[in-house]
What we know:
- Pfam families: HATPase_c_3, HSP90.
- This protein is an alpha+beta fold.
- The chain has 20 helices and 19 strands.
- Helix 1 (11-23) packs across helix 4, helix 7 crosses helix 8 and helix 12 runs antiparallel to helix 13 (368-388).
- Adenosine-5'-diphosphate binds next to helix 2, helix 3 and helix 4.
Amino acid sequence: xxxxxxxxxxxxxxxxxxxxxxxxxxxxxxxxxxxxxxxxxxxxxxxxxxxxxxxxxxxxxxxxxxxxxxxxxxxxxxxxxxxxxxxxxxxxxxxxxxxxxxxxxxxxxxxxxxxxxxxxxxxxxxxxxxxxxxxxxxxxxxxxxxxxxxxxxxxxxxxxxxxxxxxxxxxxxxxxxxxxxxxxxxxxxxxxxxxxxxxxxxxxxxxxxxxxxxxxxxxxxxxxxxxxxxxxxxxxxxxxxxxxxxxxxxxxxxxxxxxxxxxxxxxxxxxxxxxxxxxxxxxxxxxxxxxxxxxxxxxxxxxxxxxxxxxxxxxxxxxxxxxxxxxxxxxxxxxxxxxxxxxxxxxxxxxxxxxxxxxxxxxxxxxxxxxxxxxxxxxxxxxxxxxxxxxxxxxxxxxxxxxxxxxxxxxxxxxxxxxxxxxxxxxxxxxxxxxxxxxxxxxxxxxxxxxxxxxxxxxxxxxxxxxxxxxxxxxxxxxxxxxxxxxxxxxxxxxxxxxxxxxxxxxxxxxxxxxxxxxxxxxxxxxxxxxxxxxxxxxxxxxxxxxxxxxxxxxx
Length: 556
Ligand code: ADP
Ligand code: MG
């Protein structure tokens, strides 16, 4: 047989290993969740491949995940009879940073310069979390369909090198053996492993089995310890809040509870089930501003996992949503290319959008505290929908909240409907101002005339606001206008006053225009100001200073 080969980890892998083992220590138990999640992915992949090639399941069709421990050898083993890996796949998947999650983790950690466990908990750190509790990890794997002699043994102490060996493996799938560090004996107890499975992995859709214990020792008898059903296929009445929450944790790789969820079954010419969650904190990628490789929304077809399809199933501005979509009528051999142009999927997508917006509306109406949490975490992401989703623009706008001159300090809690309900008779415009900060908006001389007249002005200071306003010209039949733009709407009395004032100021205006020359387009008498002697104003078609600055920063 081939000799044992020793290789070095890719430089980044060593870095990840170092970061993971040092920063994850306070949550070290998640190694089990991560290994079970990989085993479950491997079972999903095999089930999917076996649709076209049933022979891959040969003689061993019951996919399952086994978690066992050996008190003598001081090992914990997670084994699956899923897809398995070839030698090349082992090298590619666990010797380099193949995993998208791991790569993002690395980028974020070096970017953030802080090893915040809360941050880490928000996404899968994957295979390398094994090294938090183990000082040696052995992986035994055989690809489904490959002969027994094509097994591969991978082993490493996580310090820069790993060994590879070709071995005989009678069964397909993968076993990950953790040789525990000296002070990690707690994981050699059945109840401890079992309670971690219940906490983080109860709703993995394959049976998780553990040896039955006798006289404090594992026996050869196996027992299924998780629920192992596809939670979303059960009737709502049979699912408790705890079930929903624990399924969310499995799905979203999150420590925290979800904020809210919506679970629906659509029957008819096209039947499908959706179970969609809003997290209580921004998921990791969102915090890092990343948009690529969205995970967390899984597409199933008749309970068979097909792929992560967040991009196909939800628009970008709802990228914080996690969940499952299970369609009855899509072809099982569907590819990503087909999905992108599939009309059935379009319908499912708009149903998902509707469900999520319904859910957010319900929070706004019935659970103000949760809505506030939601808005703090995802309000700015939601604003992208104003430009992105014309069909739902009005619904989204209804959910937005702003600071206001008649609001509650800098708190963003005034809705457009609140504003409209306070408009005096005759006012037909929703006025707003944009600035870099709340203080700058509030202190702007542009507000003077509005204050004097008692007209409410929305104070917008989030980066995204200016872009959003580019697509939000109207709400509920009222125009939205920037206080810095164009002429103020004046009543008859006001117009007369202004004409008179302009005439009186004619010599001064001519003088000023001469002095300022090309630097201004015009000098006018304004009704804008009450205390300040002058201000800069924009014509209707000019860019707001805030936006001009943003564009300059972006290199335009
Ligand atoms: P992720 O699961 O986010 O891809 P991981 O670090 O958890 O990242 O795993 C890295 C890769 O190693 C997986 O994508 C998969 O290709 C492979 N892998 C890990 N565990 C298994 C397993 N039990 N069976 C088959 N492949 C696995
Ligand atoms: Mg993983």
